[in-house]
């Protein structure tokens, strides 16, 4: 299936709020932000990639710019976090984007 992008959902809710959709958009935006804090807490954070079979990407650093789930819970219609992947913009001049399972992304520690 197609990944459900948290960043795209946030962008669309923010656009609806800006356009004056006061009925549902503010509440949905708040629910989404709460969901991000609880389940996708590395979104927007500096991260390190670890534990991949692709050794060249292990220990690379970047910023988690999105989170998506391709598997949906049939009862709730929400993405299954365990199936989710962060989109990480790797450090470097090209800013390569890679999708990595949540289990393989850790918060970068301050040196």
Strand content: 25-35%
Rg over C-alpha atoms, rounded to the nearest angstrom:
15 Å
Task: Name the helicity range.
Answer: 25-40%
User: How many beta-strand segments?
Assistant: 6
N-to-C SSE string, H for helix and E for strand: EHHEEEEE
Q: Main beta sheet, described?
A: 6 strands, antiparallel
Shape: elongated
End-to-end span in angstroms?
Answer: 39 Å
Structural class: alpha+beta
Task: Provide a short characterization of the protein structure.
The chain has 111 residues and is α+β, with helices and mostly antiparallel strands. It has 2 helices and 6 strands. Strands 1, 2, 3, 4, 5 and 6 form a 6-stranded antiparallel sheet that branches.
Care to describe what's here?
The termini are far apart. With 111 residues, the protein is an alpha+beta fold. It has two helices and six strands, in the order βααβββββ. Helix 1 (6-18) packs antiparallel against helix 2 (25-39). The longest helix has 15 residues, at 25-39. The protein is elongated, with a radius of gyration of 15 Å. 25% of the residues lie in helices and 26% in strands.
Defining key terms:
alpha+beta, elongated, six-stranded antiparallel β-sheet, about 110 residues, about 25% helix
What layout of secondary structure does this protein have?
Blueprint: E1 4-5, H1 6-18, H2 25-39, E2 46-49, E3 61-69, E4 85-90, E5 97-101, E6 105-107
Helix pairs in contact: 1-2
